[in-house]
Amino acid sequence: MTQTLTLRRPDDWHLHLRDGAMLEAVLPETARHFARAIVMPNLVPPVVTAKQANDYRERILKALPKGMSFTPLMTLYLTEATDPEDVTAAFANGFATAVKLYPAGATTNSASGVRDLDKVMPVLEAMAEIGMPLCVHGEVTDPAVDIFDREAVFIDRVLEPLRRRLPGLKVVMEHVTTQEAVAYVRTADSGPVATITTHHLIINRNHILVGGIRPHYYCLPVAKRELHRLALREAATSGDARFFLGTDSAPHVDPLKECACGCAGCFTATNTMSILAHVFEEMGRLDRLEGFASLNGPAFYGLPANADRITLVKGAPVPYPAKIETGAGPVTVFDPGFPLHWHIE
Ligand code: DOR
Ligand code: ZN
Fold first, then answer.
1. Which of 219, 256, 267, 331 to mutate to test the pocket of ligand 1 (most atoms within 8 A of CB)?
2. Which ligand has the minimum distance to the alpha carbon of residue 26?
């Protein structure tokens, strides 16, 4: 018996598209299945101003192959010099959908991020007033805090105090990786929502470290122990609208992953929908995939769900490529470690 599943076309609420040759190669991988994406601004140099966001949006649209449709939703990289008026104007005229907070030093190209939250309070206050969401990379950078604890500590030290100070600010905890973050979203009334990546539903920290170090499973926040992965799977498939898909698909060319100091990022744009269907089926909750991938995100961002639909069909294993070739070099596609039987028609 063929199994099929039809759902509203999904969106990706956290995506790295990069620029230039890399952008050209990875954009079709996302646009093939997804209608829209929240595009991350951690380029070099970062996308800080409304003008930079609009220029980057135009480069993305120019890189889109003919016949494909895709709407990039732009974000502004928050710095301690960000001008609140530029941010509010960018939101008002549609140049930017959200602002991204990177604690300085937390991840790839975050050096221009925020060291002192006090310095960006005028921007955050303006955002709360106009209802512009803040997407947060929720990890402390204190060298004394173990890398596996950095998300949980961020909630206590940064997020909860910020929420008390500015309860009206719409916050997205990006790529949550811990049961603490899941519990925080669940218990905080009218509090933050969270995106969950594809790869954090599949791997735990053993996948990175047991039997040899596997650079293509290294990302930030780093995958945690198994109990956290199980909490994420439960949250993603729970039907709770506060959790939705943000793949954090983050391409790096192989030489920059497979070296003595490899970059963080898993490239999942190519096979995300197949992997998600597998996970939701395993959890006995295929009927909730549409909420997670297609409905909860737009509801939070105040946008309509996509009108068209995609159909997933279960059959013989799908032959996804191990790598995609880009003008910048090869990029390894995330390997879930098992065959994928769901393909998008
Ligand atoms: O794994 C990651 N890769 N995490 C991030 O926060 C950034 C991203 C990237 O830009 O490569
Ligand atoms: Zn990211």
1. 219
2. 1
> Does 264 contact ligand 1 (Cβ within 6 A)?
yes
Q: What is the mean pLDDT of residues 62-66?
A: 97
Mean pLDDT to the nearest integer, 130-158: 97
Q: How confident is the model at residue 1 (pLDDT cuts 50, 70, 90)?
A: low
Q: Which ligand is nearest to the CA of 267?
A: 1
CA of 221 relative to ligand 2 center, distance in Å: 9
Report the chain's C-alpha Rg in angstroms.
19
Give 106's pLDDT tier (boundaries 50, 70, 90). Answer: confident
Single pTM value for the model: 0.97
**Which position has the token pair 């997020």?**
159
What is the distance between the alpha carbons of residues 210 and 15, in angstroms, rounded to a whole number?
Answer: 28
Q: Work out the angle at residue 271's Cα, subtended by the Cα atoms of residues 179 and 210, and round it to the nearest 5 degrees.
A: 55
Q: Report how far apart, in Å, the C-alpha atoms of 328 and of each of 63, 78, 314 are.
A: 15, 28, 34
**CATH architecture for segment(s) 3-344:** Alpha-Beta Barrel (3.20)
Catalytic residues: 248
The confidence score (pLDDT) of residue 105 equals: 87
Ordered alpha helix ranges (H), 76-147? 84-92, 121-130
Tell me if residue 35 falls in helix, strand or coil.
coil
Which residues are placed with Cβ below 5 angstroms of ligand 2, an ion?
Answer: 248
- Residue ranges covered by each domain of the chain: 3-344
The Cα–Cα gap between 231 and 227 comes to 6
Q: How far apart are CA 226 and CA 207, in angstroms?
A: 10
**Helical ranges in 175-218 per DSSP H:** 179-187, 205-209
2 pLDDT exceeds 70?
A: no
Atom 2 (ligand 1) nearest CA: 265
73 CB under 6 A from ligand 1? no
